[in-house]
Amino acid sequence: MKKFLLATLVPVLFFSCNEPEKNPAGNDTPSKSQSPVKVLPPVTHYTVPDRSPMDMVYFPNDYPLLKMAGKTSAPPLMRIIYSRPQKQGRQIFGGLVKYDVSWRLGANEATEIEFFSTATVLGKTVKPGRYILYCIPQETKWTLVLNSNLYSWGLEQNRKRDLIQFEVPVEKTNLAIEYFTIACEKRSDKSTELVFLWDDVKSKLPVSF
Amino acid sequence: MRKTSVLICLLISFLFGFSQSSKLPEVDKSPMDVSYYPNNFPILKIQNKATEPLIARVFYSRPQKQGRKIFGELVEYGKVWRLGANEATEIEFYKDVKIGGKKVLKGRYTLYAIVNEDVWTMILNKDTDTWGAFKYDSKKDMLRTDVPVQKTDEVVESMSMMFEKSATGISLIIAWEQVKVTLPITL
User: What single string gives the DSSP state of each residue in B63-107?
Assistant: First the structure.
């Protein structure tokens, strides 16, 4: 899923980061047993972890843990799979994530949402199944879109495959949130608010089953 | 790197301690990842370069070696292992396939392994959406198949999974530390 370029680049980055640390110790002159040739760490043939790691959110919250603990025998209701970019000092909304331009609600792959039962979202019925969820952010409201173009990378949305749109207001948070976060704020056993948080912005999509 | 992520986690928990009544998820120490066959399918798809349909994907969380001895110690021999970290590893097939000579209908499965020094027993189980291998139930097995252990030249820091094309279909490659196994999947 990651570009192999990254796999080759990371060791180089490590090398360049480590380089300045070697010299302040004053060990510039190699001893006889050491080779004067600097050796790069081997390039891995395997993928390295993503900078924007993937994460999985269930409703009911922590469903796999509940299941493991024997606290549920019912199937899960909903699952979201997304990748978590970081703010890293940048202005996110209106900056990195442009207003009025579709955004993948995460990083890397398009964000995937699966409903395991029929859901009602802001008065609209959503059939069980797997969808892509993306966002068209504006300053005061977001348009959240369910789309059927599954298993695609998040940079491009095929608008012809849009299914349902929802408009939700944007709230401001007091403190900036570093990692883009999707979470379920439970309202009852069968209803939740799907919450999206990043930077100083929060929006909520109510979902009930 | 680890210090930074610990700090970020602490910072996030600190921030939410004040701003949120409910606890928000932190960033996992063993991040989740996904691999597809065809490799990088989502990128190929948006570039219109996919020449084959999507056949399989696997979700797993990637523990790091961090100087520890993995096989035989952290991952004990002879016990069922979740093949990753956190949630049980999930493999999904988009068409019917064959593994170890047995038919596997398209759908989602949990993949476990019983690790030994020379051979791993791969287990495909029907109980999905669970955590780890703590509630592993052999009655829900679809199949078990043994695969030999190979050695890698390099030490693989982050547990890795990827698919490769093979003569009879595809293979799922699993690598960590200096161990590699290949699970043949016949199409």
Answer: -B-TT--TBTTTB-TTSEE-SSSSBPEEEEESS-EEETTEEE-SE
Q: pTM score, two decimals?
A: 0.83
For residue A21, give how far its alpha carbon lies from the nearest alpha carbon of chain B (Å).
16
Task: Say yes or no for a CB contact (<8 Å) between B15 and A177.
Answer: yes
CA distance linking residue A84 with residue A33, whole number of Å: 45
Is B17 in the same domain as B109?
no
The Cα diameter of chain B in Å comes to 57
Q: Are residues B96 and B173 in the same domain?
A: yes
- The domain in which residue B5 lies consists of 1-28
Question: Do A63 and B11 count as a contact with CB atoms less than 8 A apart?
Answer: no
Same domain, B119 and B170: yes
Pair B92, B178 in one domain? yes
pLDDT at site A45: 78
Residues A68, B135: C-beta atoms closer than 8 Å: yes
My answer on whether B171 and B105 are in the same domain is yes
Question: What's the angle, vertex CA A147, arms to CA A146 and CA A152, rounded to 5?
Answer: 125
Domain of residue A197 covers 54-208
> What is the rounded average pLDDT of the residues B138-164?
96
* Overall number of domains in chain B: 2
Mean pLDDT computed over every residue of chain A: 85
- State residue A47's pLDDT score: 80
What are the two backbone dihedrals, phi and then psi, of residue A24, each rounded to the nearest 5 degrees? -55, -25
Q: Over the stretch B17-55, which tens digit does the pLDDT of each residue have? A: 444 444 678 888 999 999 999 999 999 999 999 999 999
B116 inside 8 A of chain A by CB: no
Q: In this structure, are B57 and B14 located in the same domain?
A: no
Q: What is the pLDDT of residue B106?
A: 98
